[in-house]
Design goal:
about 650 residues, mainly alpha, 3-stranded mixed beta sheet, 28 helices, globular
Length: about 650
């Protein structure tokens, strides 16, 4: 009887959960978000078919294929493998040729760009088939993230308000752009969001299942992008705050027992963090173990040593002791030579490569200048220019509303920090992450696109909608729990806020129109402050505007206009020879006017043009040869040589390739 009673109790306990799941799946909000996700999926699939291979895909696609097919990690170690591996899975079911016997694979070190060119464009494979099917994984990851944003938002804000952050994310031009490319930026957003959600869920409900999930999602985030390592200090900080907020019963202990209680509870939190990080590391090790299985150990040691030659100075002389950061490089080389530790060594190699690149910055065009050391205001400015105006207005209004509400509470002495954290800890944690990540990004000299702050975008949307909801509908307690009274209460609230709701729907309609008009040129989208999609290149380029996505459009232009020869100065990951045959002649400024060789057409990527003609930022020790500055093109178009803007084109391919009829 006792046994049967327990079984019955367990069965009855599970019924509400099943019923709740059914209600969630078949609820109106969930059906709406499913429709939103379906539309986002359609837009990304269409854009994936439309766009040429962008710069980073030339390295990521062949790398992922080599991991899956050959379990060899010699290509692209500066990025973790998970997104690349997932993207390559459909390719395993195709009969593809891979340049295994080429020098780029056999002898050269990390020759990812050459292997990519040979694999995608020069081995008899269908390049468009490879590119399109590789993009399926990041697209599906984006759709999964839309649902994850909805579920967490619904938990924090309610089912109907939870639609709004997911809706804004699903149709954000930045998300639609980077969501359909084989790059790590959207993947990082997914990993960081899922890991943060799992970690906060564990703190709220600390049990074995949630601990394992938090550890696995933490490891997954690290396998998607190295910047996810920022979760380590973030989790430690949040756990520390959570620890002090939840020191319940501390005051009732006698003084001699307080230290014991404090240390015991602190030990629990330390054990939690250690367990999460350890589980994550086990996952990282397992994945790297698989993908380095056929990577010859001698080759791995040689590659690691060569790649880290210039890391933190120069190699430590034989017989001497390393110093500073160079010890990390020496340690990595040593780990690579041990069969047990070499998976960890390959992961560490990627981290060190990112550290080296981040510290050195990059050469980029920004606000009329070409610089190499980064600008602290780069990400705030680019975000203001790339985010849609309606969403910026929502964010601004929410920020003002939340600030005024905070000051009002402080003035009336109604706010208690501990009480707020107890009831709004998840919301507080999201705010901390946004500030933490933005401070890190602003201080980084690596300024190559708004994509690098994408992990904060879902959190910004959730926080903004939360503030918006509090402005619209203040929390009201009700003594009645009947659906009838709740229904009329909701109708009453809506009628009182009718004007606000009309304005909100108008803003959302504006946002929807902005997103629709950006199709299919999502990468080049700029709002009206940035001159719109047509003129955004005047402010900033690279992955914000021109990543090589329009070469197929140029090929269509050449075909339609019966052009037999065109000079092309192309920035991107696609192939002139594959798209044009002998119709396109690779060009650059130093080769002068193509007309001198009987070529009447010139096409130049605007990223290359801006880098060639814009002023050099003072104090950054950059130089540029006159022959690399397209001075002859300026003279041809009667543009002063000291004019720091590109000559206007006669035509465009897509948005990013400027075409001149000479």
């Amino acid at each position: 009887m006792f046994y049967n009673l327990n079984i019955l109790t367990i069965f009855q306990a599970r019924l509400p959960k099943q019923s709740k799941m059914k209600k969630t799946i078949f609820s109106a909000p969930f059906l709406i978000i499913s429709l939103v996700a379906s539309l986002s999926l359609f837009l990304m699939l269409s854009a994936a078919k439309h766009d040429s291979a962008i710069m980073d895909e030339l390295a990521h696609i062949p790398s992922g294929y080599s991991y899956d097919k050959y379990l060899d990690f010699r290509l692209n170690p500066e990025h973790p493998p998970l997104l690349k591996s997932l993207s390559a899975l459909p390719l395993l079911f195709m009969d593809l040729n891979f340049p295994l016997n080429e020098k780029s694979w056999q002898e050269e070190i990390n020759s990812q760009w050459w292997v990519g060119t040979q694999f995608i464009f020069e081995s008899g494979n269908n390049a468009d088939t490879i590119i399109f099917w590789s993009r399926l994984a990041p697209i599906l990851l984006t759709i999964l993230l839309i649902f994850l944003i909805y579920f967490w938002s619904a938990k924090l804000l309610g089912k109907w308000w939870g639609i709004l952050p997911a809706f804004l994310f699903a149709f954000s031009p930045t998300v639609l752009a980077h969501g359909h490319y084989v790059t790590t930026d959207l993947a990082a957003t997914f990993g960081i969001f899922a890991s943060t959600f799992s970690f906060l869920n564990f703190l709220a409900k600390p049990n074995k299942k949630n601990l394992i999930v938090a550890g696995l999602t933490f490891g997954m985030a690290q396998l998607l992008k190295f910047s996810a390592v920022l979760l380590v200090p973030f989790f430690i900080l949040i756990a520390l705050i959570h620890f002090f907020v939840n020191l319940k019963g501390f005051s009732r202990f006698a003084p001699n027992h307080k230290i014991k209680f404090f240390l015991k509870k602190a030990g629990v939190y330390i054990l939690w963090l250690f367990s999460i990080f350890f589980i994550g590391f086990l996952l990282i090790y397992a994945v790297y173990f698989i993908f380095t299985f056929n990577y010859p150990i001698e080759r791995q040691v040689g590659d690691t040593r060569e790649i880290l030659t210039s890391f933190a100075g120069s190699p430590t002389p034989v017989g001497e002791t390393c110093s500073g950061k160079r010890c990390l490089a020496d340690l990595d080389i040593w780990l690579a030579g041990n069969s047990l530790t070499r998976p960890a060594a390959e992961y560490l190699l990627g981290v060190l490569m990112v550290m080296q690149r981040s510290s050195g910055g990059n050469t980029a065009f920004f606000l009329g200048e070409v610089g190499g050391g980064g600008w602290w205001y780069y990400f705030p400015v680019v975000f203001l220019l790339k985010e849609t105006l309606p969403v910026l207005l929502l964010i601004l209004f929410s920020l003002i509303s939340a600030t005024l509400r905070l000051f009002r509470s402080l003035r009336q002495n109604r706010i208690k920090i501990i009480d707020y954290l107890n009831t709004n800890f998840a919301e507080f944690s999201l705010l901390v992450f946004v500030i933490f990540y933005w401070v890190y990004s602003i201080n980084s000299p690596l300024n190559i696109g708004v994509r690098h702050i994408m992990p904060t975008i879902p959190f910004i949307y959730i926080l903004s909608v939360s503030a918006l909801k509090k402005h619209f509908f203040f929390e009201q307690k009700s003594d009645s729990f009947s659906w009838f009274s709740q229904f009329f209460k909701t109708i009453n609230l809506i009628s009182k806020n009718a004007n606000k709701l009309i304005i909100l729907f108008a803003v959302l309609l504006w946002f929807s129109i902005e997103s629709a008009l950006a199709y299919p040129n999502y990468l080049s989208y700029f709002n009206e402050l940035g001159g719109g999609t047509k003129n955004g290149f005047r402010f900033v380029t690279d992955s914000n505007y021109d990543w090589g996505q329009d070469l197929k459009e140029l090929a269509i232009f050449v075909e339609k206009n019966n052009i037999d020869k065109i000079a092309v100065d192309y920035f991107g990951g696609d192939s002139l020879a594959y798209r044009f045959g002998n119709k396109a002649v690779p060009w650059q400024s130093a080769k002068n006017n193509p007309k001198e060789e009987g070529i009447n057409w010139l096409a130049v990527s605007v990223n290359t043009l801006e880098g060639a003609v814009a002023d050099l930022a003072p104090g950054m020790e950059l130089s540029r040869k006159p022959e690399d500055s397209y001075l002859w093109l300026k003279n041809l178009r009667n543009v002063p040589e000291n004019y720091s803007d590109v000559p206007l084109p006669d035509y465009r391919a897509g948005t990013s390739i400027f075409i001149y009829k000479l």
